[in-house]
Design goal:
With about 300 residues, this protein is mainly α. The protein is built from 15 helices and no strands. α2 runs antiparallel to α3 (about 50-75), α3 packs parallel to α6 and α9 runs antiparallel to α15. It is globular and about 60 Å long. Residues about 5-10 have low confidence and may be disordered.
Length: about 300
């Protein structure tokens, strides 16, 4: 092998390693978390670009650390599901120990960055999200109860709290409403996806709702949570945190979510489940975007 070929092979190897470590942080999942962080910060006040960047970086490090540890702890499950079988730890490209050390270092870096450059409250809240995802969801609930995503979803609802604390150095009623919105959004969002992956979850022995209670009950629960989400999304307006712009957007988006959930219950198919899953992503982004528009008008 020539020197040039060796250099190319080495460069390709390093790119592969870097790609695996980036993948373990689950960047696609993080994009929506970061969006809710940024929008909440601009609802809370007038943060500088530097503060927004530091808060987002701290949040990304925390979520990335949780994701890396999750890759290590769930490697046995991941190997049994087509969607996750090629993940770095499940496939053997990264050792479980390396993933746990990497995730722990990211979590510590997040805490240090937020505590030193933002404020201690934001650091503690971000760390609570990491610990909740790893200890409560991954290690305890995921393999034990079909309500895993309901209770464990609290970890994914932490970013608005971190964002509000970063801007105001405290918490109030409004960020708790935003936390509740993400909390009640998580079950119908994730259960729509789980309907598409029921057989894989069953093969891996993960007690997701469609596996344990059946697809019909899952669709009913999705509709129930869509209605609950609509009700919760009205609380910020009722409390005076937002005005007419948010109210109109929340009503239209909530009605569309309920309609999609009802359609899924009446016309069960993979297509309607996928459409509702994709809409749920747009729903959260549009709702938080409407908050910023309302706050800035």
């Amino acid at each position: 092998m020539t020197a040039q070929a060796r250099a190319l092979a080495l460069a390709g190897s390093w790119r592969s390693i870097v790609g695996d470590y980036v993948e373990m942080t689950k960047p696609k999942v993080q994009s929506l978390l970061i969006f809710t962080t940024v929008t909440t910060m601009y609802v809370a006040g007038d943060p500088s670009l530097g503060l927004v960047a530091l808060t987002c970086l701290g949040g990304a490090l925390s979520a990335g650390g949780a994701g890396a540890i999750n890759h290590a702890l769930d490697r046995d499950i991941d190997r049994l599901m087509k969607r996750t079988a090629d993940r770095p730890v499940a496939s053997g490209r990264v050792s479980p120990a390396a993933a746990i050390v990497y995730g722990s270092l990211l979590g510590c870096a997040s805490f240090a960055l937020l505590a030193l450059t933002v404020n201690p409250l934001a650091a503690v809240l971000a760390m609570s999200g990491l610990l909740g995802y790893v200890l409560v969801y991954t290690m305890w609930l995921k393999r034990r109860t079909p309500q895993n995503i309901v209770i464990g979803g609290a970890a994914g609802a932490v970013p608005p709290l971190v964002a509000w604390a970063a801007v105001t150095d405290g918490l109030a009623g409004t960020p708790l409403y935003l936390f509740a919105i993400v909390f009640f959004w998580t079950p119908p969002h994730f259960w729509s996806l789980s309907l598409l992956m029921k057989d894989e979850y069953a093969r891996a022995g993960v007690p997701m709702l469609p596996v344990v209670r059946g697809e019909g009950e899952t669709r009913r629960q999705i509709l129930l949570y869509a209605v609950l989400l609509y009700a919760v999304s009205q609380l910020p307006f009722c409390a005076g945190a937002f005005g007419a712009t948010y109210l109109v957007c929340s009503i239209l988006l909530g009605a569309a979510f309920i309609a999609g959930a009802y359609r899924l219950m009446r016309q069960p198919s993979r297509r309607t489940a996928l459409r509702l899953y994709l809409f749920s992503l747009a729903y959260l982004a549009l709702l938080f975007g409407a908050m910023v528009v309302d706050a800035r008008l």
